[in-house]
Design brief:
By secondary structure, the protein is α/β, with parallel strands linked by helices. It has 24 helices and 14 strands. Strands 1, 4, 5, 6, 7, 8, 9 and 10 form an 8-stranded mixed β-sheet that branches. α9 runs antiparallel to α10 and α11 runs antiparallel to α12. It starts with a strand and ends with a helix.
Length: 668
């Protein structure tokens, strides 16, 4: 069966949807999930280990940790051996990509997708899915989206690249060694060999560290000794010494120095800028490591609101390769304008070209080689070279896919963007077909009417049969919301699907009833303290009469804005809160966020419970959100409240639709 792991797992919306999906006898084997928040681990382990009885591992760890890929692989190898990972899932936190809020410079959330892509490069799954907010399409005028697509398309097949370089160098023999195309091709092929060496070094360092990690874990030593050794070898793992890069830069440096030796037209200070820039480029991986360390300290020391922030930002700006290259190119332009020899002009042009080639994407360099060689080759030779060039890209993705959760049976209009990368030996997935039409979408009342029995400031742990019988007279649907069952699929009301559950009972025959624990760390979990109940997470806040009047007015007039315009002087509107959303009974809800108080219930003068928000997200009622219902202040650093877990989750039914499409395409 295809396997998957879920990074940035949060509460488990992706995982839940993938476990629901089945097609032609195929279903998924859930190997591991990971998230930085310990409360999410509690929710995962209670659901998948305790309640469903799976062997699934969970890793509470920061993906930016330099040993993150090896720790994941070690956990999987210890439990599953060399079982391949077929699908990698992940939704890097959306704060830095959201249309709301202000981007924080050096916020590590801004670049988490790059770390996700590094995991892909090492694991090389058949498919990967990266989910994010709709706002990512327009972030910085679309530059973020273009960078994501560019990075995905730049993951290479090292074996294919090696073949391409070998064939290119063979074809180069047909060129005059003194012509410019030959010179440019030489630099291009040398750059490609640098890329190959980097790929090889990263892979070898990872394998060496993984072997050492497993050896240390199996050895008899104290935790202090183990930690000391791991820290030591982790420093070694991060070293990046590339002999091909050293040789490349040394040749350029010699070329430049020889051309401007004893030059009177160009001052030594200007020449030194180019030489120093070349040295910095030669040591780019050491500088990158320093830059990342500074960024980690900015976040670790919480400098975002500090007088030190601008000074530390200046450090990272100075170390950034874009800054180094900008200074380099400016110096080259200045020298080019002042030099008075053809030899000098030729040298500076050659150095600039070589550095430009060095920093362009691998596939752009491959395209450069094909274009340079094609005029000198036969049609058959060109076809052979292009065929190899096309095979270098390991993953194929045409463009992003925009999804609305309500198109897949979720009673919520929630737009999201997914990037589905397909390994070159797998069929490309270009769309996730909707399962319901606009007129067939699941409404809020279909999802919530049976839960209306709860009162203000109360907690209910069992269903009310009378409310259920009255509320359940709704349309019957297939799991993904279809109103007609063309293949004889089981149909139920949305409420019944939520109560019965959407997991195949034949695969999970011993599922335990909903069970809750208040702990935020799995190490503190005590089975003797677990609370079993029929209905979990259904608790209302203690809202005073004025707040409840505010909800009543919003329900009466249809929205916060309309109510305030109708009765602007009402004391209920003397509040700084501005993000209220009023649910309609006859339509899907608006996008569910992380605060239940932001939503006015369509049928009562109150906000939503965690269970009601979970219903609108399409979680089964048996899925229990663990830990505290709400929290605030400094506690949020260690606690992820239930409302946040629900609001940040990917709707399981939308994940189910994605999982189903991959099952229909995936090949052995």
């Amino acid at each position: 069966m295809p396997t998957f792991i879920d990074l940035f797992a949060g509460a488990g919306g992706f995982s839940e949807g993938f476990l629901q999906a089945e097609y032609n006898g195929l279903h998924y084997d859930f190997l591991l999930a990971s998230d930085i928040n310990p409360t999410c681990e509690v929710t995962h382990r209670m659901r998948y280990n305790y309640q469903l009885g799976l062997d699934t591992e969970f890793l509470t760890k920061d993906i930016t940790d330099p040993d993150f890929p090896e720790v994941i692989r070690s956990k999987i190898r210890q439990k599953y051996g060399d079982k391949p990972i077929d699908v990698l899932l992940g939704g890097p936190p959306c704060q830095s990509f959201s249309l709301a809020g202000t981007r924080k410079k050096n916020d590590k959330k801004d670049d988490l997708f790059s770390y996700y892509l590094k995991i892909i490069s090492l694991i090389k799954p058949k498919y990967f899915v990266m989910e994010n907010v709709y706002g990512i399409l327009t972030k910085y005028n679309g530059k973020v989206k273009e960078r994501i697509l560019s990075e995905i398309n730049s993951i290479i097949d090292a074996d294919a690249l090696e073949e391409f370089i070998t064939l290119s160098e063979q074809y180069m023999k047909q060129l005059d060694k003194n012509c410019l195309p030959y010179l440019e091709c030489t630099y291009a092929c040398d750059k490609l060999r640098i890329a190959l060496e980097k790929e090889s070094v990263i892979k070898q360092n990872s394998q060496n560290y993984l072997g050492a990690l497993e050896a240390i874990e199996s050895a008899e030593m104290s935790p202090e000794q183990s930690s000391y050794l791991l820290d030591s070898i982790l420093l070694k793992k991060q070293e990046m010494s590339l002999s091909q890069l050293d040789g490349y830069i040394d040749r350029l440096s010699d070329k430049f120095v020889n051309a401007f030796r004893n030059s009177k037209a160009v001052k030594e200070e200007e020449r030194n800028i180019v030489r120093q820039a070349l040295n910095l480029i030669k040591h780019q991986y050491s500088l990158e490591k320093i830059n990342q360390a500074v960024k980690r300290e900015i976040n670790a020391c919480q400098l975002n609101s500090s007088t030190y922030k601008s000074e530390f930002d200046a450090m990272t700006d100075t170390l950034d390769e874009e800054h180094i290259l900008s200074v380099f190119y400016d110096a080259c332009e200045s020298i080019h304008a002042k030099t008075d020899t053809i030899h000098g002009i030729s040298a500076i042009d050659e150095v600039k070209l070589a550095i430009h080639i060095l920093y362009e994407h691998v596939l752009d360099t491959v395209k450069r080689v094909v274009n340079l060689l094609s005029p000198y080759l036969s049609d058959q030779e060109i076809d052979s070279l292009k065929k190899l060039a096309d095979s270098i890209r390991l993953y194929h993705i045409d463009k992003e896919i925009v999804l609305n959760a309500s198109d897949y049976g979720v009673p919520q209009n929630r737009q999201r963007v997914v990037f589905i990368g397909c390994r070159k030996d797998q069929p490309v997935i270009r769309k996730i077909p909707p399962t319901v039409t606009e007129s067939e979408k699941v409404t809020a009342s279909e999802a919530l009417d049976d839960l209306l029995f709860i009162k203000n400031n109360s907690c209910e742990t069992a269903y009310d049969q009378g409310y259920y019988e009255q509320a359940n007279q709704k349309p019957k649907r297939c799991i993904l919301g279809q109103l007609d069952s063309k293949k004889g699929e089981e149909q139920r009301t949305y409420i019944d699907w939520s109560k019965k559950g959407r997991l195949n009972p034949d695969r999970f025959p011993n599922i335990k009833q909903p069970t809750y624990t208040s702990v935020n760390f799995w190490a503190d979990a005590d089975p003797d303290q677990f609370q079993a109940m029929e209905l979990a997470n259904h608790q209302t806040s203690n809202q005073n009469d004025l707040v409840r009047e505010r909800y009543k007015l919003m329900r009466t007039y249809g929205s916060w804005i309309a109510a305030k315009e109708a009765v602007p002087d009402h004391p209920a509107f003397a509040t700084n809160k501005r993000n209220y959303s009023c649910l309609r009974a006859d339509a899907p809800s608006t996008t569910i966020m992380t605060l239940g108080d932001d939503y006015a219930h369509y049928g009562e003068d109150r906000s939503l419970t965690v269970r009601e928000m979970a219903r609108l997200q399409s979680f089964d009622d048996s899925f229990v959100f663990q830990g505290k219902r709400t929290t605030g202040g400094d506690r949020r650093k260690l606690e992820t409240p239930q409302y946040t877990q629900v609001g940040n989750a990917i709707p399981p039914l939308m994940a189910h639709a994605i999982a189903l499409e991959i099952l229909k395409h995936i090949k052995e």
